[in-house]
Write a structure and sequence with these properties.
By secondary structure, this protein is mostly helical. Helices cover 77% and strands 0% of the residues. The chain is elongated.
């Protein structure tokens, strides 16, 4: 391969299931890493290619190598969390995403991902803490507000949930699910059922 652009074209083929794409990507990264063995980004990209192929062991090795080269490499930490989630290692994934939040406390995307992960694991109080951090960083983000609101509802903090969700429902009248959650909160019913 002449350059990284060719690798990226091959990666697109890998995502689309193109024949021989993995071999092209693999050869390209082998060559690129031989030329630049201290590139954490190349190791991370190689980890992503292995992840796409569901070879979690190799993906973990390459992501770990990236982290070894750059100990605060949040994208590598998040890749390791994705690998753990793919292998049903939720606790390990949460620990890694918490580490990423600590490394980049001003990054609302990572705080949101931590909240979403904790919410999916039914750790609603932990999710709320993460969503509140994300809300502080991006107060106008409707997606963050929505998840904060439904988390408050899960914690049976109905008034707080309504304060967050009612303005969203008013701004999005076409969202029937959100309108139903708000109506259920107002009437004292289960917000989700």
């Amino acid at each position: 391969l002449n350059n990284l652009a060719e690798i990226h074209v091959a990666e697109a083929g890998l995502l689309l299931g193109a024949q021989n794409a993995y071999e092209v990507v693999n050869a390209g990264y082998e060559r690129a890493l031989a030329l630049n063995p201290s590139s954490a980004t190349l190791y991370l990209n190689r980890a992503m290619a292995e992840f796409i192929k569901n070879d979690y062991e190799k993906a973990q090795t390459y992501a770990t190598n990236a982290l070894y080269l750059k100990s605060d490499y949040v994208d590598a930490i998040m890749m390791l969390a994705r690998i753990d989630l793919a292998q049903n290692k939720s606790r390990e994934a949460v620990s890694l995403v918490e580490r990423a939040v600590q490394a980049m406390p001003q990054n609302p995307r990572i705080a949101f991902e931590l909240g979403a992960l904790k919410y999916s694991l039914k750790n609603y109080s932990g999710a709320l803490t993460a969503f509140e951090q994300a809300t502080t960083l991006v107060p106008g983000d409707a997606n963050v507000q929505y998840y904060k609101g439904i988390t408050l509802a899960q914690l049976n903090r109905r008034t707080d949930a309504l304060e967050v969700l009612a303005p969203l429902a008013d701004a999005n009248p076409q969202n029937a699910d959100l309108a139903q959650i708000v109506a259920n909160l107002r009437s004292g019913k289960n917000p989700f059922g």
